[in-house]
From TrEMBL:
Pfam family, one: Shikimate_dh_N
Reactions listed under catalytic activity: shikimate + NADP(+) = 3-dehydroshikimate + NADPH + H(+)
Full protein name: Shikimate dehydrogenase (NADP(+))
Protein function: Involved in the biosynthesis of the chorismate, which leads to the biosynthesis of aromatic amino acids. Catalyzes the reversible NADPH linked reduction of 3-dehydroshikimate (DHSA) to yield shikimate (SA).
Native source organism of the sequence: Phormidium tenue FACHB-1050
């Protein structure tokens, strides 16, 4: 928040259910305060069945300039918007919405957020098969990102064959001209032997489930140049990344994805560059 709430204050926020765990208010309000903008970013807890009413209601409140969406609303929001930008159509999920006149325009900043720490690396992505563990909402953004990187093949691993088939069908209809394959969990060792990057897009390793999606023995199968990327940002590092670092691999956690998807979203709302370092410091301080 830039200062006092005034009659002119504009509103941004995050819709989710639950939403109390969201770190977005921390980083967005830190950035808004440092820019001296007359905005505030607030949580909007909205049950699934109330999403249509919430989207219509917020449109009527003229000071609401935009909002983020988190679980469980990223897909269900799509038919409620006036326009969905191509990147969000490709992923099949919207995480950021902006008021443009009297229209809600949705985009997806998770793809660019995921790519941010990878773009700083000097990698031969054309020779880097990707292995994605999990097939939920975040995995969809990761598939689109790996496609943008130019990975020659994208392997997605899941535990439920029906869901995997559905995932493959949905992504195939949204993205074109790419090599996506889905596999059962038992295929992991065989896939890791030739992987250039392995991404944990499951909740395994969060504080509530402090495990690892792949074992130390499986991590040993990865080529020496492989990258281990965990979308989880608490704890830092996860057991998955601890094992990867001990094995000498490049290990990346989910904090930069979180910060960058937020910064790109704030730029989309404010139409100007935002202080990403202030957003990073606010989150690091908050997370201790
Ligand atoms: P989601 O939609 O609920 O998907 C979770 C996926 O993990 C599903 O495919 C699920 O499989 C699988 N899974 C869950 N528990 C599993 C287990 N014990 N064994 C094997 N597979 C399991 O969640 P999401 O939104 O994709 O998020 C996934 C993770 O990414 C979360 O930890 C989230 O916090 C993180 N994330 C981080 C960022 C960031 O900015 N850093 C952004 C988005 C998400 P089933 O379908 O079979 O249940």
């Amino acid at each position: 928040m830039g200062g006092s709430i005034l009659g002119t204050t504009k509103i941004l926020g995050v819709m989710g259910f639950p939403v109390s765990h969201s770190l977005s208010p921390v980083m967005h309000n830190a950035a808004i305060a440092s820019m001296g903008f007359d905005y505030v970013y607030v949580p909007f807890p909205i049950p699934v069945e109330d999403l249509p009413a919430a989207i219509a209601g917020l449109k009527a409140i003229q000071s609401v300039q935009g909002f983020n969406l988190t679980i469980p609303h990223k897909v269900e929001v799509i038919p409620l918007l006036d326009e969905v930008l191509p990147i969000a159509k490709a992923v099949g999920a919207v995480n950021t919405v902006k008021r443009v006149g009297d229209r809600w325009v949705g985009t997806n900043t998770d793809v660019a957020g995921f790519l941010s720490p990878l773009k700083q690396l000097n990698c031969d992505w054309g020779n880097s098969p990707a292995v994605i563990l999990g097939s939920g909402g975040a995995a969809k953004a990761v598939v689109a990102a790996c496609l943008e990187l130019g990975c020659p093949v994208i392997h997605v691993v899941g535990r439920d064959s029906k869901k995997m088939k559905k995932f493959h069908g949905a992504m195939t209809s949204q993205l074109h001209d790419y090599n996506l394959r889905v596999h059962p969990w038992t295929s992991i060792p065989h896939l890791l032997e030739v992987a250039g990057i392995v991404i944990n897009a499951t909740p395994i390793g969060m504080a509530s489930d402090p495990n690892t999606p792949i074992s130390e023995a499986e991590m040993d199968l990865l080529p020496d140049q492989a990258i281990a990327y965990d979308l989880i940002y608490t704890p830092r590092p996860t057991k998955f990344l601890q094992i990867a670092a001990a094995r000498g691999l490049k290990a990346i956690d989910g904090l930069e994805m979180l910060i960058n998807q937020g910064a790109i979203g704030l730029e989309f709302w404010l139409d100007q560059p935002v202080p990403i370092e202030i957003m990073r410091q606010a989150l690091i301080t908050h997370l201790g």
